[in-house]
């Protein structure tokens, strides 16, 4: 049986990657299944454990690191850990489904490095930083200090966009989803 391929979608926080991934997963022709990441951050009010993330404590996360059970992991924003579980990815691939990741830039580059040609890396960005700032502010999930940290990190992440296989500007969500879907379909059609 063939194993599914990996599609990594990364972007600065607020660029729309989660919205894009959710729409892509709804398209059954792509056979995409979401790789649920583990994190130590608190769940937002609209997030569900085991659906959006596996919300675990720091001790559990550190145990996963020690046991080498993560494909990649990173500490971001002062003591918040995020990572991708090997067992989550293998579970999806063994079902001949394609794994889609909604992940940060460092994680995306780590996965691309480990899986090479069986991984497509896509970078999503907003037309400019002001648009990104407006989107983050409209979510009303960030205080002023956190917003500044996210914007500073976004500048660095944007500098890494050229390391990805494809870059898309998310100016219109539906149009961006169509472009990303076409790129993924091209990748999946390759043998």
Summarize the structure.
The protein is α/β, with parallel strands linked by helices and 191 residues long. The protein has seven helices and nine strands.
Write the layout of secondary structure elements.
Layout: E1 6-10, H1 17-25, E2 32-34, E3 37-39, E4 53-55, H2 58-66, E5 70-76, E6 80-85, H3 86-94, E7 98-103, H4 105-115, E8 119-125, H5 129-139, H6 144-159, E9 166-169, H7 173-189
Helix percent band: 40-55%
Shape: globular
In terms of quaternary structure, the protein is single chain
Structural class: alpha/beta
Order of strands across the biggest sheet? Answer: 2-7-1-8-9
SSE order, one letter for each helix or strand:
EHEEEHEEHEHEHHEH
Mean pLDDT reading: 90
Q: Report the β-strand fraction as a percent range.
A: 15-25%
* Cα end-to-end separation: 14 Å
CATH H level: which superfamily?
A: P-loop containing nucleotide triphosphate hydrolases
CATH architecture, by name, is 3-Layer(aba) Sandwich
Runs with pLDDT <50, length 5+?
none
Rg result: 16 Å
Number of strands: 9
Look at the structure and give the CATH class.
Alpha Beta
Main beta-sheet annotation: 5 strands, parallel
Tally of DSSP helical segments: 7
Total number of domains: 1
Q: Could you walk me through the main structural features you see in this protein, from its secondary elements to its overall organization?
A:
The protein is globular and about 45 Å long. The mean pLDDT is 90. Strands 2-7-1-8-9 form a five-stranded parallel beta sheet, sandwiched between helices. With 191 residues, the chain is of the alpha/beta class. It has seven helices and nine strands; from the N terminus they run βαβββαββαβαβααβα. Helix content is 43%, strand content 23%. The chain has one domain (6-185): Rossmann fold (3-Layer(aba) Sandwich), CATH 3.40.50. The protein has helices at 17-25, 58-66, 86-94, 105-115, 129-139, 144-159, 173-189; strands spanning 6-10, 32-34, 37-39, 53-55, 70-76, 80-85, 98-103, 119-125, 166-169.
